[in-house]
């Protein structure tokens, strides 16, 4: 097996294009090899921008009827069971992550293909990935080649989580500076500096809450930050914010 072959298999798995047998094989490989598991997480982060392209769709009216019809043809031993006992509340300790990851991968592919049942993925993953402070907007920053390089989570309290998706090649003597444009008719505002290769939460002062279509970008600036308090260096990545769907 070549290195390139493994990368292609991981890409197909993350995009939901792998067979069930292939998905199980890669999942088992991740459990044995921490380096492969880390590579899969990097690929998931790289393809996360594709989720932003999925249009919210309604579940078809006959969706549950089709599920019931498929169960009618199941073997009898699968449909008969003892009376159900009330289930205890779920906790983080008892969640089986592997099936959730398989489901997330499959539903992501469904969303990208435009199938209406993708809305169910949002409900399932939203219940497990909710955090105490939800972002008001999310922006995927793309480089000049259109590749995602960072994700912005803008929150109503004007804290901004900047997640770098790969290590940046920062020119010598320069730093990475994060900018936003809270007002369409106003100048860009600096949110702060980033250490090379490090994600960080930044806090803005005297700024309005972030809103959809707000511009975010990261530039390379002289050590200590832009001398003019405006972007002066090459743009590492930029993008416009969107409201997340919960």
Description:
With 246 residues, the chain is of the alpha+beta class. The chain folds into 2 domains: 1-76 and 95-130, no CATH class; 137-240, Immunoglobulin-like (Sandwich). Helices cover 35% and strands 21% of the residues. The chain contains 7 helices and 8 strands; from the N terminus they run αααααααββββββββ. The protein has a 4-stranded antiparallel sheet, covered by helices on one side. β1 (137-142) and β2 form a beta hairpin. The model is unreliable at 81-100 and 109-132 (pLDDT under 50). The chain crosses the membrane at residues 109-130. It comes from Thioclava dalianensis.
Structure characteristics:
246 residues; alpha+beta; Immunoglobulin-like; 4-stranded antiparallel sheet; 21% strand
Give the gist of this structure:
With 246 residues, this protein is of the alpha+beta class. It has helices at residues 3-14, 20-32, 34-51, 63-72, 76-79, 97-112, 118-129; strands spanning 137-142, 148-154, 159-164, 174-181, 189-194, 200-203, 215-222, 235-240. It folds into 2 domains: 1-76 and 95-130, no CATH class; 137-240, Immunoglobulin-like (Sandwich), CATH 2.60.40.
């Amino acid at each position: 097996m070549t290195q390139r072959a493994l990368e292609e298999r991981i890409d197909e798995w993350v995009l939901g294009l792998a067979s069930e047998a292939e998905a199980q094989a890669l999942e088992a490989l991740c459990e044995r090899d921490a380096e492969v598991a880390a590579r899969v997480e990097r690929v998931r982060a790289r393809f996360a921008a594709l989720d932003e392209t999925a249009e919210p769709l309604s579940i078809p009216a006959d969706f549950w009827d089709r599920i019931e019809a498929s169960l009618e043809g199941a073997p009898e031993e699968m449909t008969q069971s003892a009376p159900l006992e009330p289930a205890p509340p779920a906790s983080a300790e008892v969640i089986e992550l592997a099936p959730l990851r398989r489901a997330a991968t499959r539903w992501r592919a469904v969303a990208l293909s435009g199938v209406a049942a993708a809305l169910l993925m949002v409900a399932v993953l939203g219940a497990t990935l909710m955090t105490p402070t939800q972002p008001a907007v999310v922006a995927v920053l793309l480089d000049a080649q259109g590749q995602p390089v960072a994700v912005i989570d803008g929150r109503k309290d004007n804290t901004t989580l900047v997640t770098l998706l790969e290590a940046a090649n920062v020119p010598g003597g320069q730093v990475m500076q994060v900018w936003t444009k809270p007002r369409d008719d106003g100048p860009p505002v600096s949110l702060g500096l980033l250490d090379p290769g490090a994600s960080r939460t930044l806090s803005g002062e005297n700024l309005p809450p972030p809103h959809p279509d707000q511009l975010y970008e990261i530039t390379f600036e002289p050590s200590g930050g832009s001398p003019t308090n405006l972007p002066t260096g090459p743009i590492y990545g930029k993008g416009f914010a969107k409201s997340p769907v919960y």
